[in-house]
């Protein structure tokens, strides 16, 4: 199949199906906790391709490369910080080969996760150094055959800025998603609406914005409601986890069924999402059910928070419009004022 572009695919259909989990599917194939999945691009390219192929066969229109932790800071933990170009190039070319072998057009998205460092002024990583690391990764993903750069699991404005500007140097469309995994906010405190607003003023215009991972399918739909509210004009992406992680027989198991993920896909469409996929725990079996659901679904009105809870499970107080963190801060403030008066 000849190569397509994100624009072309988006104009051909109202929704696109992204792919499933990398980590949890690799664990099934023998990845050990603590191993760098990115080293499989060299050690087990056949397994990397098998997972890509299973997603394409299940109906994914977009597959993400095995390069989430493939920046120099994350690779340093595995003494591989000087192999950024090699590993990203390989990651993209393995996905490219599977995409090209499909009889449908499939896009290769170059996955770019966080550095794991904290940016200045709170931490030590400078904006320039961060930008440079992301640019280095982006260039190699492009060279290996990525169609799009896909920044994911970001939690701070600083890292979002560095990642988008670094990725922007490669000249490919850039998608940016954050993880809202802390009572409806990112670990660094951003709400979905904050994120939507921030994307308006980034130097690099994003081809898609959204959320990934987080705390389950229900919270994901509530999260994207916040993003689509702030940015009704944007192409919005949802890549939610396959239910909630549970510890079963010594390993982590995600409790989402194919039926739950199908319902999640329908609700995400109703919420205005154009690109829908799964994160941790999502297998080809779930994706197949999601694709069938999307194909048969006529989007309805935006779901209420109550409807989301009824169909998928509970959501955070923030999604209910109760900002517990702000209320706690305000009551701390009142307490300290009282103390000062006393
Ligand atoms: Zn995840």
Structure description:
The protein has 342 residues and is of the alpha/beta class. It has a single domain, classed as Homocysteine-binding-like domain (TIM Barrel, Alpha-Beta Barrel). The protein has helices at residues 6-12, 23-28, 40-43, 45-58, 72-76, 84-101, 127-144, 157-168, 192-200, 217-230, 258-270, 284-296, 305-312, 324-341; strands at residues 16-17, 62-64, 107-112, 148-154, 174-178, 208-213, 236-240, 245-248, 251-254, 275-278. The protein has an eight-stranded parallel beta sheet with strand order 1-10-7-6-5-4-3-2, with helices on both faces. A two-stranded antiparallel ribbon has the order 8-9. α7 links the parallel β3 (107-112) and β4 (148-154). α4 (45-58) runs parallel beside α12 (284-296) and α7 packs across α8. The chain is globular. The mean pLDDT is 95. The structure holds zinc ion.
């Amino acid at each position: 199949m000849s190569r397509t572009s994100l624009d072309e695919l988006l104009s051909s259909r109202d929704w696109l199906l992204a792919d499933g989990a990398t980590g949890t599917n690799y664990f099934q194939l023998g990845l050990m906790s603590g191993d760098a999945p990115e080293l499989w691009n060299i050690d087990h390219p056949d397994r990397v391709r098998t997972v890509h192929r299973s997603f394409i066969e299940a109906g994914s229109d977009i597959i993400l490369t095995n390069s989430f932790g493939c920046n120099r800071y994350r690779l340093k933990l595995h003494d591989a910080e000087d192999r950024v170009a090699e590993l990203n190039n390989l990651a993209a070319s393995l996905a490219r080969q599977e995409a090209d072998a499909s009889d449908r057009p499939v896009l290769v998205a170059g996955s770019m996760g966080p550095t794991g460092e904290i940016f200045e002024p709170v931490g030590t990583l400078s904006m320039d150094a961060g930008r440079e690391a992301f640019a280095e990764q982006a260039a190699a993903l492009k060279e290996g055959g990525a169609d799009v750069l896909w920044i994911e699991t970001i939690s701070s404005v600083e890292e979002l800025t560095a990642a988008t500007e670094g990725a922007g140097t490669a000249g490919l469309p850039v998608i940016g998603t954050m993880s809202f995994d802390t009572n409806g906010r990112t670990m660094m405190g951003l709400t979905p609406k904050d994120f939507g607003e921030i994307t308006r003023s980034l130097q690099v215009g994003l081809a898609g914005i959204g959320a990934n991972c987080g705390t389950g399918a229900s919270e994901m739909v509530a999260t994207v409601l916040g993003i689509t509210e702030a940015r009704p004009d944007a192409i919005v992406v949802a890549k939610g986890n396959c239910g909630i992680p549970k510890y079963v027989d010594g390993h982590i198991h995600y409790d989402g069924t194919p039926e739950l993920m199908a319902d999640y896909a329908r609700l995400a469409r109703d919420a205005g999402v154009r690109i829908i996929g799964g994160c941790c725990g999502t297998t080809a079996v779930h994706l197949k059910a999601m694709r069938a659901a999307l194909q048969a679904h006529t989007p309805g009105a935006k779901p209420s928070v109550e409807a989301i809870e009824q169909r998928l499970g509970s959501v955070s107080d923030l999604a209910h419009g109760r900002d517990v963190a702000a209320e706690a801060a305000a009551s701390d403030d009142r307490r300290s004022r009282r103390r000062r008066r006393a």
